[in-house]
Amino acid sequence: GAGVSQTPSNKVTEKGKYVELRCDPISGHTALYWYRQSLGQGPEFLIYFQGTGAADDSGLPNDRFFAVRPEGSVSTLKIQRTERGDSAVYLCASSLLPRHTDTQYFGPGTRLTVL
Amino acid sequence: AQSVAQPEDQVNVAEGNPLTVKCTYSVSGNPYLFWYVQYPNRGLQFLLKYITGDNLVKGSYGFEAEFNKSQTSFHLKKPSALVSDSALYFCAVRDGDNFNKFYFGSGTKLNVKP
User: Fold this and answer.
1) Cβ–Cβ contacts within 10 Å for residue B99, how many?
2) Is the pLDDT of residue B1 over 80?
3) Hey, are the CB atoms on B96 and A55 less than 8 Å from each other?
């Protein structure tokens, strides 16, 4: 079946601009996660959705970052006033349920470059 | 604090030889441990996980991992490496007290030479 998809695969923007990154989880998965992966590092947790609500947004670095999941399926990560330090690969993952036993399945990521 | 350590940035092995990629962890609750593999320009692919039960876990592509509670380790192993196993490997832990998020190691690059 279809896996997690993310669009765009690459995004180049200028400092100060606004960007939106989209994630389409595996059908039927209720839990959705966003991570950020900087060069040479492992992914770092940003935010987790259970259904439509953000159940844990403790990883968002500041208030320029925001994410929504209005219908409990597709999610959008929004970054305002982008900075060069925001350049990274943004990964989305989904799992059937938010149980500790459930595997998270990752999308291919969106590579964001802020010039 | 929860954390994962992968002490080797890179592991080099010859094709056909056994391989080990090391991982140690620190959590406050029960650990739930995962291994993922990442190929260039691809997302993370799930390999295997330890939840409970047998300390030796078998996963995809002939990989296995051994959970050792006393050493807080979860090393990834394969009896006979293939060139196609060359990739970036990530260990991740989920804390049983707060299982919303994974904590990832920094990754180990596996190079399998023909």
Assistant:
1) 17
2) no
3) no
Average pLDDT, chain A: 93
Its sign, for the CA torsion A13, A15, A20, A23, is positive
Alpha-helical segments (H) within chain A: none
* CB distance B87 to B34 below 8 Å: no
Alpha carbons B52 and B57: distance in angstroms, whole number: 10
Chain B contacts to A (CB-CB under 8 A): 4, 32, 34, 36, 41-46, 49, 51, 90, 92, 94, 96, 99-107
User: Does A7 contact chain B (CB < 8 Å)?
Assistant: no
What is the per-residue pLDDT across B7-60, written as a single tens digit (0 to 9) for each? 999 999 999 999 999 999 998 888 899 999 999 877 899 999 999 889 999 999
Cβ of B44 within 8 Å of Cβ of A91? The answer is yes
How far is B44 from chain A, CA to nearest CA, in Å?
6
Nearest CA in chain A to B50: A101
For A104, the token pair is 């998270």
Q: Mean pLDDT across the stretch A66-71?
A: 94
Q: Is the peptide bond before A8 cis (omega within 30 degrees of 0)?
A: yes
* Of the candidates A11, A88, A6, the residue with the CA atom closest to the CA atom of residue A42: A88
CB contact under 8 A, B41 and A55: no
CA dist A17 and A110 (Å) reads: 17
User: Which residue bears the tokens 């040479």?
Assistant: A40
